[in-house]
UniProtKB/TrEMBL annotation:
Pfam families: RlmL_1st, THUMP, UPF0020. This is RNA methyltransferase. InterPro entries: RlmKL-like_Mtase (IPR000241), RlmL_1st (IPR054170), SAM-dependent_MTases_sf (IPR029063), THUMP_dom (IPR004114). The keyword RNA-binding applies. Residues 50-161 form the THUMP domain. PROSITE patterns: THUMP. It comes from the Bacteria.
Amino acid sequence: MSQVFPYPSQIVVTCFPKQSPWLAQEIEALGFKVESQGITEVEVNGFMDDCLKLNMFLRTAGRVLFQIKRFRAVNADELYKELSKIPWEDYFDIDDYFSITSYVRNDTITDDRFANLRAKDAIADRFVKKTGKRPDSGSDRDGTVIHLYWRDEKVRVYFDTSGETIAKHGYRKIPGKAPMIESLAASAIIASNWDKKSTFVNPMCGSGTLAIEAALIATNTAPGLFRENFGFMHINGYSEESWQGYIRLAQLQQKKQLDFRIIASDINGGAITSAKMNARTAGVYHLIDFQVCDFRETEIPEETGVVMFNPEYGERLGADKDLEEIYSAIGDFFKQQCKGYMGYVFTGNLDLAKTIGLRAKRRVEFYNAKIDSRLLEYELYAGTRRES
């Protein structure tokens, strides 16, 4: 892509806490070797052009960071001095807009905003010295985005090639009540080991994120197809031809039809209206059967597959005692109507989960925002299914 960065560098792909196993799985499937993995990131080595590929195809990621430089800085003055040595005028245009994001854990810094300001000043002052002009800067992430990682004396400087987070996949125009972010929904589906060729049922679907992500995964629709602006587009040397190549590749890999059913239901007609609109934006409306009904009346086809719930947790949406009956009813629904399926409940309330009344075969750790959550897996043994 770029003669500005003709060399490989460290690429850090971030995610929400506990999603890194599924992110690493995705990255390896794209042909990359994972160098290291933490709770909120996966590291690989690659070229700037690889960042285009990662931004196009990753479902579970938040940001794709390409390392520009690493150095040591004890305090803000040393940070300013080292950042001033970087040839920023070669990396992005004086007429472009830039912003700084940061992670700062340094004893001399009591406010991250001060570190950001010093970084911004170093870059702007370098431009003034080299070109006589000062670039515009601010907090929006729709131009060149520079990420500063500063822990103790260790500093890493990156281009955020995503710009705005890619954890949001761009189709959800109506989010609904307490929605699950798209990258988390994709992670939960990948964690379920759903085979992408059997029935997927999402009762209590809300704004439809789980069902839509299932359809996008099954059709191999790349999340990057929904976005028109990325951080890498504002870095000198960006190749529109290279990006168009990834768009064509993504379109060639995309399926248009499925030979199994995806079903999404909700008792709230307004939620289903929102879900339908989001599904239309995502291009998968024709692949999902939407039903307005109590979850207990959701159609469960005779074939096998996955039934996945993301019920209310209680922390944000009402008293726990009001939800105990719902969780208990989910257990009954699993036992009576979902035999032969794999059942999943994503919840941030493990006390409520106990009222489901089934023993979980597996408990996968996640975080939803700051809520410690679990994807609970239930094997629903086949037998004669009782009519609801």
